[in-house]
Design goal:
Kynureninase; hydrolase; 14 helices; PyrdxlP-dep_Trfase_major; 2 domains; Aspartate Aminotransferase, domain 1; kynureninase activity; 7-stranded mixed sheet; alpha/beta; pyridoxal phosphate binding; binds pyridoxal-5'-phosphate
Length: about 425
Amino acid sequence: MNELLSPAHAAALDAADPLRQLRDQFLIPQHDGADQAYFVGNSLGLQPRGARAMVQEVLDLWARIAVEGHFTGPTHWMNYHRLVRDALARVVGALPVEVVAMNTLSVNLQLMMVSFYRPTAARPAILMEAGAFPTDRHAVESQIRFHGFDPSTDLIEVQPDEANGTISMGAIERAIAEHGKRVALVLWPGVQYRSGQVFDLDAITRLARAQGANVGFDLAHSVGNVPLTLHDTAPDFAVWCHYKYLNGGPGAVAGCFVHERHARDASLPRFAGWWGHEQATRFQMAPEFVPELGAEGWQLSNPPVLGLAPLRASLELFDRAGMPALRAKSLQLTGHLEALVLARLSNVLQIVTPTEPERRGCQLSLRVAGGRAQGRALFEHLQSKGVLGDWREPDVIRISPTPMYNRHDDILRFVAEVEAWAGL
Ligand SMILES: *Cc1c(COP(=O)(O)O)cnc(C)c1O
């Protein structure tokens, strides 16, 4: 145990890390002349050094040739969304035809529910987790009302049943068994944003589909954090954003997955726009809508090129590392953090996130002993020392060591600052 706590051990782990050079590909915010210990990749991922050149390339083309930029060169804007498609498919374990970068997460969630939440009098309900991220709750409730149904009976929320406010697979299974015949859509997160819990998406998909319900996932906290196999898992759809673990920059264009089994289904209801029209005939500008094959058929507008550009730089790094290696490092980093919290900080911090590595990603949610005032004081102390986590009311600090750029040394700094604050 003592070895785990020593700076020499952390330094050895960092030196032996096969992904250590990735950190140099990022701009790390500074604090008092040193790198911050940045644990907020779950909120806004850091800027890849390559992002500026990607944005600059667009600005330069715009300045030099303006409208011709739509058609000129290998990165022409007409198909700019396709520059990220294949790498994105690799990150989420999908076929290229199943993914598209478009809009933002909440918009994609609404668009997907237009197609995959098709309530009937006999089957009107959406089943989701209690305590979901607000946008998911708002989107679901507004869809239920939009179709003339009643959220008080047709929005089914599965309550946490475990000690730390996490939800067991048993509770999900029981809820789907109990309500299944009334459920039109199961909407579930891949990683719970508050607790950091990872869910078994294969099992949830199987249970929901066995009841005849559609399945959609919000993967905001999963993409780039845990390995995904969306094609094989086979939900109907998934949505996610790119500014968290995918380092696409503030407000980055989001992601969307539609399973291949729907790729050719022109009969699905959808809210259409010209960019979802079959590419080969799009510029005939005919009045009838013919959807492009796959997820791209849900696009509305021509691609927001400046909003996509930084993502290209980040995806190059994901391709270089690969999700299996990132996950391996992530398990080691978060395991190290957990061991130190348990050994040294257990009087101050209680780990809310499940202890089983397969039930969590990189994030640990840490409840501060003594309640909100103590929690805020610790949080502000950490900030003043250049150790950045994020705060969740009323008393939780989330610390997310991301394998792309965090080090074991960052974890030691976090532990040392909590100890200094607590006088340990
Ligand atoms: C971050 C996050 C969002 C954000 O939605 P935007 O449309 O990108 O603002 C939505 N849902 C979950 C679960 C998130 O974690």
